Amino acid sequence: MDFPYNRVEGTTNTEDHKVFVDLHVFSEFIPVDDAALTEVIQQWLLDNVPEVLSTTAERREQTFPVTQLPPLPG
């Protein structure tokens, strides 16, 4: 099973601290532009969190292995 998501990483003015936002969008019938939403989140972090100096974003594919169930006793 695949569960793709976007990760926004904010670099702060402190070397040891970073901000991570993972954006999982699931919409079965309504199209959602998750790339545009990611850009809005990046800009919001820059505008509203004084410690955040810059942001980067990347698309990640999170895959979970699916184990087959044994057959039911017959």
From TrEMBL:
Superkingdom: Bacteria
Protein name (database record): Uncharacterized protein
Organism field: Streptomyces osmaniensis
